[in-house]
């Protein structure tokens, strides 16, 4: 539970930006459908990579906080970026069902 | 039971310039190990290598003779206070105490300047109070060893006295490895003292060595 709380704390650093990007992609998917799926997928991957680089540099000092509590950078990134991408893909599937 | 942290065979170089080459240090629980050294000698690099945060060309880090190269994954063995502020400033004082399972009431009782500060966000504290809380938590959190890289930075003299009290107290519970440019408290506190110069650690047995190695004049 404590680990999840800390991972959520880390995710707070970029959830808003990432959600905005996801919403924009979902809106485009609603409009154009599967024809742009590949573009939207790679666009999302690219934005996650930019977030990874930016937060990795901007919040570099704060990683010591999580490490002192037993959570490595790898766990933070895999958990947050992984969950963000999975939710994004699940939402794309849902949008496709209702369009 | 006493525990031992020792490290040696550490080699680090940047662009061909050798920073660390001949290192040996040993820390024990119940003791304070001090590290002195001029700016740029590699003290922080050494601590980051021991913590596993910085990759060295070679290294051997052992806890009770067992090699643990990535100590940052084991806060039960080693905690690390870097020389800069690292707690997320958006958190409240109560939250960080809770995360590290450290009792805020004890701090409040002992240091009244923190009374009713538990709902404050860290960014609302003064620079000295912020640094004090980070150092206090790293000292008080449960672990076998703690590295303190410049714990007195940003602290005013009264706060330094208080943190020295906590350091002396926590020495009973863990092994402490400390460096700071405020070298007199380090010299006074340390049970074992080392000096890092030209990539090598020198064990200080007589204080005159500190002068001989060109670090400081202690006899004044």
Contiguous helical run count of chain B = 7
Strand content of chain B: 25-35%
- How many H/I helical runs of chain A? 5
- Estimated share of beta-strand residues of chain A: under 5%
Mean pLDDT of chain B: 93
Largest sheet of chain B: 6 strands, mixed
User: Tally of extended strands of chain B?
Assistant: 11
Going across the biggest sheet of chain B, name each strand in turn. 7-8-9-4-10-11
Derived from helix and strand composition plus strand pairing, the structural class of chain A reads mainly alpha
Write the layout of secondary structure elements.
The complex is a heterodimer of chains A (99) and B (220).
Chain A: H1 2-11, H2 15-32, H3 37-58, H4 63-68, H5 73-98
Helix pairs in contact in A: 1-5, 2-3, 2-5, 3-5
Chain B: E1 4-14, E2 17-20, E3 24-28, E4 32-37, H1 43-51, E5 58-63, E6 66-67, E7 78-81, H2 93-99, H3 104-110, H4 127-140, E8 145-149, H5 157-170, E9 175-179, H6 183-189, E10 192-197, E11 200-204, H7 208-212
Parallel strand pairs in B: 4-9, 4-10, 7-8, 8-9
Antiparallel strand pairs in B: 1-2, 1-3, 1-5, 5-6, 10-11
Written overview of the protein:
The complex is a heterodimer of chains A (99) and B (220). Chain A has helices at residues 2-11, 15-32, 37-58, 63-68, 73-98. By secondary structure, chain A is an all-alpha fold. Chain A has one domain (2-98). In chain A, 21% of the residues are buried. The mean pLDDT of chain A is 95. Chain B has 220 residues and is an alpha/beta fold. Chain B is 29% helix and 27% strand. In chain B, strand 5 and strand 6 (66-67) form a beta hairpin. The N and C termini of chain B lie far apart (40 Å). Chain A binds chain B through residues 2, 6, 9, 12, 61-65, 67-70, 72, and chain B through 51, 53, 72-76, 79-80, 82, 84-88, 90-91, 99-100, 138, 141.
């Amino acid at each position: 539970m404590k680990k999840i709380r800390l991972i959520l704390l880390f995710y707070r650093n970029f959830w808003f930006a990432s959600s905005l990007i996801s919403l924009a992609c979902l809106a485009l998917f609603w409009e154009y459908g599967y024809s742009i799926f590949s573009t939207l997928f790679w666009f999302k991957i690219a934005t996650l990579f930019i977030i990874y680089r930016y937060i990795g540099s901007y919040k570099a000092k704060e990683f010591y906080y999580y490490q002192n509590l037993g959570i490595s950078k790898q766990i933070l990134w895999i958990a947050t970026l992984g969950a963000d991408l999975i939710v994004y893909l699940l939402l794309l599937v849902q949008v496709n069902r209702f369009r | 039971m006493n525990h031992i942290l020792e490290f040696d065979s550490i080699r680090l170089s940047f662009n061909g310039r050798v920073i660390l080459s001949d290192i040996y240090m040993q820390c024990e629980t119940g003791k304070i190990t001090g590290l002195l050294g001029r700016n740029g000698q590699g003290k922080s690099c050494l601590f980051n290598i021991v913590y596993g945060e910085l990759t060295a060309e070679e290294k051997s880090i052992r806890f009770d003779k067992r090699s643990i190269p990535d100590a940052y994954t084991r806060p039960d063995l080693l905690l690390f206070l870097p020389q800069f502020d690292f707690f997320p400033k958006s958190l409240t004082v109560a939250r960080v105490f809770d995360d590290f399972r450290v009792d805020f009431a004890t701090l409040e009782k002992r240091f009244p300047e923190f009374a009713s500060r538990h709902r404050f966000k860290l960014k609302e504290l003064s620079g000295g109070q912020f640094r004090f809380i980070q150092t206090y938590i790293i000292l008080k959190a449960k672990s076998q060893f703690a590295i303190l890289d410049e714990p007195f930075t940003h602290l005013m003299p009264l706060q330094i006295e208080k943190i020295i009290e906590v350091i002396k107290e926590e020495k009973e519970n863990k092994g402490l490895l400390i460096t700071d440019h405020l070298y007199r408290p380090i010299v006074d506190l340390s049970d074992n003292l080392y000096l890092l110069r030209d990539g090598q650690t020198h064990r200080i047995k007589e204080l005159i060595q500190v002068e001989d190695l060109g670090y400081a004049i202690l006899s004044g």
